[in-house]
Amino acid sequence: MEFFSEDMASKRTVLNGMNKMNSFGTRLTGSKGQLDFIAYLKNEIKKMGLEVYSDPYRFNRWEEKQSSIVLHGMEGDESIHVSSPWPYSGQTGENGVTGQLVYCPAKHLGFLGARGGIAVVKMKDFEKVPSGVAFNQRSLITEDGAIPKYYKGPVATSFVKFPLFAAAKACGAKAMILIWEGMSDEMVEGQYLNFIMGYQGIPALWVNSTDGEKILEAAERGERATLTLVAETENQAHTESFYAIIPGEKDDRAIIINTHTDGTNCVEENGPVALLAMMKYFLKHKTERTLIFVFVTGHFRLPNFKEGSMQATSKWLSGHRDLWDGKKGHIKAVAGVAVEHLGCKEYKDVDGKYTCTNDIDVELTYTGNKTMDEIYKKALEGRTLARVSTYAGHNFLHFGEGQPLFDFGIPEIALVTAPDYLCSVAENHHMDKFNIDLMYEQIETFIKCVLLIDETPEKQLGKPDMYSLALGKVKTGA
Question: Which residues contact 85 (CB under 8 A, 6 or more apart)?
Answer without folding.
Answer: 64, 67, 203, 204, 205, 206, 229, 231
